[in-house]
Amino acid sequence: MSEQSPRPRTRKAVVPAAGLGTRFLPATKAMPKEMLPVVDRPAIEYVVTEAMDAGLTDVLMITGRNKRALEDHFDRHPGLEQTLAAKGDTRRIEAIRASDLVGHLHYVRQGEALGLGHAVSCGRRHVGDEPFAVLLGDDLIGAQESLLSDMIDVQQRLGGSVVALMEVPEESVSAYGVAAVEPVAGEDPSVVRVTGLVEKPAREDAPSTLAVIGRYVLAPQVFDVLERTAPGRGGEIQLTDALQTLATGEGEGYGVHAVVFDGRRYDTGDKLGYLQAVLELGVEHPELGADLRAWVKDFAAGL
């Protein structure tokens, strides 16, 4: 990235976390789906850590009713720390202090579940007039991947908004927003221009098999577009519809590019994806990995 670029670098993140988690009932009847554990950390902590690692130290979480556990998790717990200190358990003290992000995290409620576009618009006052990232709590990206940082670089270099795309099987396109794309002269092949977006198309209507996954870097002009966006599929305000307007319009903040991602990603909003995340991250765990790998081999041999 040229140091002479006049564009500000993205420094804020919005994390929508107001969903009801109905696909995981009854587990989510009293627990936010974002707090379901992936090995020994709740799923939402992986997402917030990813934002922090990309330099986004100002994170706004969009919450809803019965989400107080999210705030408690990222808060200090002096009583617990004192109990662990009395036992000399410094390892666990360090582990819980890693999630102490008071001062970096802020919260606002989405009063009514009116779609992802509406959730993003709830962050307008906090974000202000600057580009910002959106990270969906259901999507976990491998800790070694640079996807978010790459997207921030592309947005600073090319302007407009940037989405993350990933190849999906043709039979799965109806579960995603799907993009039509074209190459960008002078850019790496993984960076493309988005010429159109369709939310959850029928298989025969999909413009490609490149699906939008849960990482975005958005120009602040998206807020004005969302205000004008009528409810779409499911009666909700769809972020995909606003991005379609940005992709086909002209002017400051318009235009949408994408980074095509082929790294490790887990859809923890899906039961199978959640179990895959637990297993894959579990076998890499520094304490549990060796024993779990041995057990998996024995278990698989008996199938």
Automatic annotation (TrEMBL):
<dbReference type="InterPro" id="IPR005771">
    <property type="entry name" value="GalU_uridylyltTrfase_bac/arc"/>
</dbReference>
<dbReference type="GO" id="GO:0003983">
    <property type="term" value="F:UTP:glucose-1-phosphate uridylyltransferase activity"/>
</dbReference>
<keyword id="KW-0808">Transferase</keyword>
<dbReference type="Pfam" id="PF00483">
    <property type="entry name" value="NTP_transferase"/>
</dbReference>
<dbReference type="InterPro" id="IPR029044">
    <property type="entry name" value="Nucleotide-diphossugar_trans"/>
</dbReference>
<feature type="domain" description="Nucleotidyl transferase">
    <location>
        <begin position="12"/>
        <end position="278"/>
    </location>
</feature>
<comment type="similarity">
    <text>Belongs to the UDPGP type 2 family.</text>
</comment>
<protein>
    <recommendedName>
        <fullName>UTP--glucose-1-phosphate uridylyltransferase</fullName>
        <ecNumber>2.7.7.9</ecNumber>
    </recommendedName>
</protein>
<dbReference type="InterPro" id="IPR005835">
    <property type="entry name" value="NTP_transferase_dom"/>
</dbReference>
<dbReference type="GO" id="GO:0006011">
    <property type="term" value="P:UDP-alpha-D-glucose metabolic process"/>
</dbReference>
<keyword id="KW-0548">Nucleotidyltransferase</keyword>
